Structure formats: C-alpha cells, structure tokens
Amino acid sequence: MTGRVLYNGFFRTLLGFILLAVGGFALSPLTRHARALEGKGGSRMTTIPISLISTRDALGEQLSFFLLGGLSSLASEILVLDATTAWIQRDWPRAERRWQMVTTLNPQRPNYWINAARDMAVNASSHCLNDQKLSPIDQVRLSRAYFNRGIRFLQQGIAHHPRSALLRMCLGDTYADLNRFPDFAAAAATYHDAVRLGASALYQRQEFYNLCRIRGREQEAWKLGRQLFNSPSQRVPSLLCLLFVLQHIIDVPSTEKLSPIELFGSERKARRDLTRFQHNSLRFPTVGIKEFLDSTI
To answer: How far is it, in rounded angstroms, from Cα 116 to Cα 97?
Structure first.
C-alpha cells in the first residue's frame, strides 16, 4: 500500500510540474508585462493574493503565471499535489504553506479546509509526537502547534461556510480525538451546532459522549442521554452504560431512574455490557459499576 502511495504521489507530482513548466512557458510574456506594470504602479497585480507569491518559493513564483491567467483552480490542484509530496517527505512546514495557499485561492471548497486540517492535526501532529529526533518537550510542543493549526483551518473554513454541518462535524471529531489534545467541552458544543445545522441525529450521541467526560456537566449529560434513550436507534451499549453510571453520579429522582432491566432488557445483559464497559479506555466514568457487579454475583 505504501509503495502504491509513493508511486502515485511521484507521478502526480511529476504531472503537476510538467503543467507548471508548460504554463510558465506560455504565460511568461504576460508575467514580464505584469511585473513591468507593477514597477510603474500598475493595478493588474492586485488581483493576485500577495501572500501567495514569495521570491523564496519557486513553486509560488511559477503559480503566479496561472493566477495571472485566471487559472486559480488549476493552481490549487497543483498546490494540493505538492502538499501530498510534502506529506510523503514529512516536510510539514511546506505542507502547511501549500494548504494555506490552496485555501486562500479556493475558500469555497470545504474539502480543502478538511484535508488541510487533517494533514496538520493528524498527520503532522502524530509524526512530531513520535519523532525520536526531537526532545520530549519539542515533540509535544510541535505536535500541539500542528494540532492547533489544523483546528484553525477548520475554524477558518467555518467562517467561510457558516451553514456547513460537515465542517463542524470534522471540527468536533478533531476536538474529541483522544490520541492528541482533546477538548471535550469544545467537541460537545461543536457537535451540537452540527446537529442544529442538519447533521445526523447520531451526532447528538457524540455530543452526549463528550459531555459525559466533563466533570460537573453530568446533569446536562443525563438530560441529553435520557432524551436519546427514547429513540430505539440510539440505544447502543455505550449509551446504556453511561446512563447507568450517570444515575450513580447525580441525584436522579427515583421516579426518573431507570433500572438495569429497563436499560439493558435483562440482568444478564446488564452484567455483560457493564463488565465490558468497566475498564474502558475512552475516558468515560465508571462510577457504580463495580458495586453493581459485586452485588449480583
């Protein structure tokens, strides 16, 4: 699989640079003319995002040819190819620059924001966190920096697409990532907004899960979880186990409490599911489970 990725990445990048060469040759007179206008105070260069052009960046210089020709979509695709090459080479600063260029050129494409965020918050962050060439302090520092950069890409994407449930779902998933730097409160709020904008009701369960992980918000979690319990499609074992636990954490009125039989259908199923859940690695509370299992031996 890795060989295929490297093979495809090489030839896709090669194609991109062939396009660059052809485009640069065809548009070089136009570029020289534009530079001359710029020197005379001309206004045509103002249509090109200044932040995308750098004399220290050969690709950015070449892409100015396409921008002058109104080919921003082609320029974006070439930048995506180079971002892929940067990923293969683990050149994260270059990957970040390319994605910034791509999203600046085409902010109307949600998938660009999503891919940029994944490259930073997942790929770059994971690589830095496990890079043995770095000191332990720098591993965490750089990993968190790239993770935060991924978050910002999604936040900027949402600013351009305020009605996008998809971008909020991706942002919620990033906040809730247990392998990096989770922010459960931000994840719960983001999932809530995603559902409000049309995301599947299944994302309400994601909101519930993250509320359960936040000390002091158990009452809020119980209220949402009890609402979800009313829908048979939401009654997965993790939801049932967490409702059982929440009843032991907060003072649920006896009239609202759900017995193990009501929750799981039978004592046997209750013991089975709670036994599996007792030592979960998902940072969920397990209050009351051991006592129940001991009492039903």
So the answer is: 10
The one-letter amino acid at 253: P
Residues 116 and 146: beta-carbon distance below 8 Å: no
What single letter denotes the amino acid at residue 101? M
pLDDT tens track for 181-218: 999 999 999 999 999 999 999 999 999 999 999 999 99
φ, ψ of residue 198 to 5 degrees: the values are 115, 0
> What's at 290, amino acid-wise?
K
The hierarchical CATH code for the domain 113-124+135-199 is 1.25.40
Q: Where are the domains of the chain?
A: 113-124+135-199, 216-297
Cα gap 94→100, rounded to integer Å: 10
Are the CB atoms for 103 and 112 separated by under 8 Å?
yes
Q: What is the pTM of this model?
A: 0.78
| Backbone φ, ψ for residue 22 (5° rounding) | -65, -45
